[in-house]
Amino acid sequence: MTQLTEAVRNGVDTSVLFATLNAIKQQPELARFQFRARNVWLGGAHNRSTIKEFYGACQEDTSRAHEFVIDAGEPAVLVGTDTGPNPAEALLHALAACLTTSLVYSAAARGVRLTRVESTLEGDMDLRGALGLSDDYRNGFERVRVTFTVAGDATPEKLRELVNRAQQRSAVFDMVAHGVPVTVAAIVDEPTEMRANGSTA
Fold it and tell me: Rounded to an integer, what distance in angstroms lies between the CA atom of residue 82 and that of residue 72?
């Protein structure tokens, strides 16, 4: 029982963590993953993403019993009805979640037991860019600030090192800070009346 308690640190099974790392070292193709999301517009600013299957470890993964559902929207001041966080806020959530997971895993691997991990994120944006009112402003965040509060059985220096390590290894931090190529394709349905008339114009 004591060994099991030692193996699970910060809610992370370190024996599984190290076994996963060793497996990838021996078979690098296991590291190739493809994550997916499907989105549907529900009206106005309200749209909904569903997430379930993904590809990883050389196979399609269908182990999730249920899909995750994430609604998005806009506040009333931005012509929405608060059906969910807006996409920029969802990005802040993704960044916080990824940094936190990276921090917790790093701490578990290094034998540090954490008692508190909290973060506050702020993203500054001038909407004149996204609203098409001025090309002098970018469409997205001008800057993002992340502040962590961390406590555990380690020195302050070690805890700060873990936060830095999380920043170095966070996938979402990398995507936000350094960008990622994105392609957008369009599949356009014919209007219903054109399909009914058999038109190909």
Answer: 8
pLDDT per position as a tens digit, 61-79: 999 999 999 999 999 999 9
How far apart CA 114 and CA 159 sit, in angstroms, is: 9
Give the DSSP H or E segment for 111: none
Find out whether 12 and 108 touch, Cβ atoms under 8 Å: yes
196 burial via Cβ count (<10 Å: 0-12, 13-18, 19+): exposed
Cα separation of 83 and 87, whole Å? Answer: 12
Q: Which letter does DSSP use for residue 176 in this model?
A: H
CA 127 centroid distance within chain = 23
Give the separation between CA 163 and CA 101, rounded to whole angstroms.
11
Tokens 């966070």 map to which residue?
170
**With contact defined as beta carbons under 8 Å apart, do 166 and 99 qualify?**
yes
Identify the segments of the chain with pLDDT beneath 70: 1-6, 194-201
Residue 58 DSSP one-character state: T
Question: Could you tell me the sign of the dihedral formed by the alpha carbons of 15, 16, 21, 23, in that order?
Answer: positive
Query: Which amino acid, 28?
Result: P
Check: pTM over 0.90? Answer yes or no.
no
DSSP-derived 3-state class of residue 127: coil
State the sign of the Cα–Cα–Cα–Cα dihedral 94, 97, 101, 104. positive
Tokens representing residue 99 in the block: 């940094």
148 has which bridge partners?
119
